[in-house]
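Title: Comparing notes on inverse folding

I've been comparing how different people in this forum approach sequence design from structure. To keep things fair, I'm posting one structure and asking everyone to reply with a full sequence. Here's the target:
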């Protein structure tokens, strides 16, 4: 590229797999990619959710592939990759946004609960990275966008396993950014509190948690999936070609806000 040129912030030419793309943040990212003209695979365990989301993306004018997957099952990820490669001829972007949570303190959480959160939240993206790495490398310009959390860098009550897994996502992002370079760029987004299935009851308006969280944002509000999606579009676009191993915070000031 010439000295003062830059690539556009666009994913129009990309083939994107969004794991956890049938709800909340992942669905918001899948919608944003689709609206930009990308071919998208919004995937999760539930066929009905996949179908509903794919129809939503098609209504936006995008090509969507219907495929389920379970990130705790390597064979399921291999089958997903093979289906996507058959349908689209390759993969350019992998977004890791599967969710599992245990609302327990460190002294209360059981081995099973801790293990399940790690299996979905950290080992899921780790497995998906391993399974998709070669395909993402194939045509050059591949990238991975992981979904971290403000809880990776702050201590939040009753999120012990979740916070530790998300700190792992930050490390996984740095490690894979180095290991998969130069062919594949790996970055992450770090959302603050966003209204989704995961949070809508625990952080509902009127609760103490809602008041505590909104007081720390500069707009006194919890975010929507659409508030986060643009950051994923940017990181997956060629405009972010020199951005590697970065964790982009999208939290309306929550993490940096003190009193
Ligand atoms: N909401 C927030 O405030 C917030 C803040 C920071 C970070 N995050 C992170 O953002 C990501 C998405 O969370 P969300 O709030 O959008 O949650 P969500 O609305 O509950 O969506 C979670 C998605 O993960 C899928 N999923 C769950 N287990 C799976 C598995 N084993 N294999 C494949 N897919 C699976 C779900 O679909 P199925 O049930 O059909 O599998 C669903 O599509 C998570 O990594 C979460 O930790 C959320």
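Reply #1:
Here's my take.
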């Amino acid at each position: 590229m010439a000295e003062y040129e830059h690539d556009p912030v666009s994913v129009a030419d990309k083939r994107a797999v969004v794991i956890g793309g049938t709800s909340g943040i992942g669905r918001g990212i899948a919608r944003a990619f689709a609206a930009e003209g990308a071919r998208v695979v919004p995937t999760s365990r539930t066929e009905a959710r996949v179908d509903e989301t794919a129809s939503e993306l098609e209504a936006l004018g995008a090509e969507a592939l219907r495929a389920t997957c379970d990130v705790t099952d390597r064979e399921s990820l291999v089958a997903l990759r093979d289906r996507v490669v058959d349908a689209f001829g390759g993969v350019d972007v992998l977004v890791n946004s599967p969710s599992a949570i245990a609302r327990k303190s460190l002294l209360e959480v059981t081995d099973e609960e801790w293990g399940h959160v790690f299996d979905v939240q950290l080992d899921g993206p780790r497995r998906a990275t391993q399974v998709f790495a070669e395909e993402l490398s194939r045509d050059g310009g591949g990238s991975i966008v992981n979904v971290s959390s403000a809880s990776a860098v702050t201590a939040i009550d009753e999120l012990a396993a979740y916070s530790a897994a998300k700190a792992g996502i930050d490390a996984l992002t740095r490690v894979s950014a180095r290991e998969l370079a130069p062919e594949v760029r790996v970055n992450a987004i770090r959302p603050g509190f966003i209204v989704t299935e995961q949070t809508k009851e625990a952080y509902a308006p009127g609760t103490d948690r809602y008041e505590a969280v909104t007081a720390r944002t500069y707009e006194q509000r919890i975010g929507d999936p659409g508030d986060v999606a643009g950051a994923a579009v940017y990181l997956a676009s060629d405009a972010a070609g020199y951005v590697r191993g970065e964790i982009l915070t999208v939290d309306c000031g929550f993490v940096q806000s003190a009193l």
